[in-house]
Amino acid sequence: MNKKTYFLLSGSLILALAGSGNLHAAIDDADAEKLLKDSKCLKCHDVEKTKKGKPYKKIAAEYKGKANAMAELTKHVTEPNQVEVEGEKVDHGTVKTRDAARITNLIEWILAR
Ligand code: HEC
After folding, report:
1. Is 41 in the pocket of ligand 1 (CB under 6 A)?
2. Which atom of ligand 1 is nearest to the CA of 53?
3. Nearest in space to 77 (alpha carbons), one of 32, 16, 19
4. Sign for the pseudo-dihedral over CA of 64, 67, 72, 74
5. What is the pLDDT of residues 31-78, one digit of tens each?
6. Is residue 87's pLDDT more than 60?
7. For the chain, what percent of residues have pLDDT higher than 70?
8. Nearest atom within ligand 1 for CA of residue 73
9. Which residue, by CA, sits nearest to atom 41 of ligand 1?
10. Smallest Cα–Cα separation from 77: which of 103, 110, 55?
């Protein structure tokens, strides 16, 4: 392989790698925020402040880089479960949609805080 071919090949490899990042759809902030509002999540969670539940920023930090983050958090907001608020067990809310794309968008939004 001569030098010129080598540069052409490595150039297209870099383009291919850079391009693959675009396969991932951008997060829809407005839809995530609407779903949080409609599902009454904001009653207990804020992005920055601790309310009854911890802030989404903290959740994002805890799950950063974890391979199971999507699966765990999706389960947490779609299947009924209990959490502790001021020493008492209460039902944790679930998202008011069954649209998997909207739920995925919401979890990605939380993880991006
Ligand atoms: C009654 C108050 C309350 C409501 C309503 C509520 N949460 Fe929570 N949430 C909590 C508490 C308490 C925890 C447990 C951890 C903590 O201390 O924040 C929690 C944990 C979480 C976690 C982290 C789970 C983990 O494994 O660390 C996520 C994500 C979450 N909530 C999202 C949501 C979403 C989305 C909604 C709306 C569908 C919602 N929460 C509604 C109180 C609430």
Report:
1. yes
2. 18
3. 32
4. positive
5. 999 999 999 999 999 999 999 999 999 999 999 999 999 999 999 999
6. yes
7. 79
8. 29
9. 41
10. 103
Other Cβ atoms closer than 10 A to 8:
12
What global pTM score does this model have?
Answer: 0.84
Closest ligand 1 atom to residue 62 Cα is 27
C-beta 103 within 6 A of ligand 1 = no
Given a cut of 70, whether residue 7 has pLDDT beyond it is no
CA dihedral over 37, 41, 44, 48, signed as positive or negative: negative
* Residue 93, ligand 1, Cβ within 6 A: yes
Report all structural domains of the chain as residue ranges with CATH numbers, in order of start. 27-111 (1.10.760.10)
Q: What is the DSSP letter of 112?
A: T
CB-based burial, 76-90: b 16+ in 10 Å, e otherwise: ebeeeeeeeeeeeee
Place of tokens 């850079």: 18
